[in-house]
Write a structure and sequence with these properties.
- The chain has two domains: 1-35, no CATH class; 38-268, no CATH class.
- Helices cover 66% and strands 6% of the residues.
- It has helices spanning 26-33, 39-51, 53-62, 67-88, 118-155, 162-172, 174-187, 201-213, 215-242, 247-268; strands at 2-3, 10-11, 91-92, 102-105, 114-117, 193-194.
- The strands form three sheets. A two-stranded antiparallel ribbon has the order 1-2. The chain has a two-stranded parallel ribbon with strand order 3-6. Strands 4-5 form a two-stranded antiparallel sheet.
- The protein is elongated and about 80 Å long.
- The N and C termini lie far apart (49 Å).
């Protein structure tokens, strides 16, 4: 006999679903078998999610993993950081782009001092620190959104545990990574914006919007929206099989909440 990790009742060891509460016991069997999804396997899963999401949903439901989701979220954080640096580089009139702002450091006793620009210092700090900060924020939202979607799924009669939901959310964010990568490419060709007068948060925010939401930058923003919409659809497809929902139930329990989150994130900020 085995004990159900959801309700605690005893069921025969060969059962994959609890007869008392309907909880999926597959994950426990997989843990006993010692099956581990590594980085290479998770990358193959990413390809399958894009090419064949229907069959990928069955695989993720059978053997959920968090490796792929963590990798995707960190890559999103890294690409977003690069995008921020490119945008800041197009804001003329700020200290970030001032040619005389920086530090002079003498590497040797009688050598000429080496000038290190403020832009280089901030850029290096961004590259090494900002992705980690964003990744931590994403991990918190990942855990929070898992709990929220679990409530919606259970309220509509679906079955899914935290690990499966979290796995599907992670892999479903792959199109957002594609959208941000394309946005970075087009942002490189966006025009510069001159900030004159007092440099305040409002003026910088308005300049960021001008760079990212007009001209060539608008094309990049369009791909971000496409990526998010693709993520919403992917979430519905992948969660449908895992949570044992109909298409309509999956749209209600997963698609609509994710779409609402997309609207808040994409249109409520200048960078997301």
């Amino acid at each position: 006999m085995q004990s159900c990790s959801s309700c605690g009742e005893l069921v025969p060891i060969e059962y994959v679903v609890c007869v008392w509460c309907g909880f999926d016991l597959t994950a426990e069997h997989i843990r006993r078998a010692g099956i581990i999804i590594g980085r290479n396997e998770s990358i193959q899963r990413m390809k399958k999610v894009v090419r064949d999401p229907m069959n990928a949903s069955k695989e993720l439901a059978l053997i959920p993993d968090l490796t792929g989701g963590k990798l995707i979220l960190y890559m999103i954080a890294f690409v977003m950081t690069l995008n921020m640096l490119v945008v800041f580089g197009k804001l003329d009139g700020t200290d970030f782009n001032a040619t005389d702002a920086g530090l002079s450091i003498a590497l040797f006793k009688n050598s000429d001092p080496l000038f290190i620009s403020f832009k280089f210092i901030v850029g290096m700090a961004f590259i090494f620190v900002q992705p980690i900060v964003l990744y931590i924020i994403f991990m918190i939202f990942w855990k929070f959104s898992t709990k929220i979607l679990k409530i919606f799924i259970k309220s509509i009669g679906g079955f899914a545990d935290d690990e499966k939901i979290k796995c599907i959310i992670g892999y479903s964010m792959l199109p957002v990574l594609f959208g941000w990568s394309l946005s970075l490419f087009f942002t490189l060709f966006a025009g510069d914006v001159n900030i004159s007068g007092n440099v305040t948060y409002n003026t910088i925010s308005a300049a960021v919007v001008e760079v990212t939401r007009t001209g060539v930058g608008m094309v990049g923003f369009f791909f971000i929206i496409i990526g998010w919409l693709w993520t919403v659809g992917l979430m519905v497809i992948l969660m449908r099989h895992s949570a044992k929902l109909s298409l309509v139930e999956s749209i209600i329990a997963v698609g609509i909440p994710t779409l609402f989150m997309m609207i808040v994130v994409v249109f409520g900020t200048s960078f997301f």
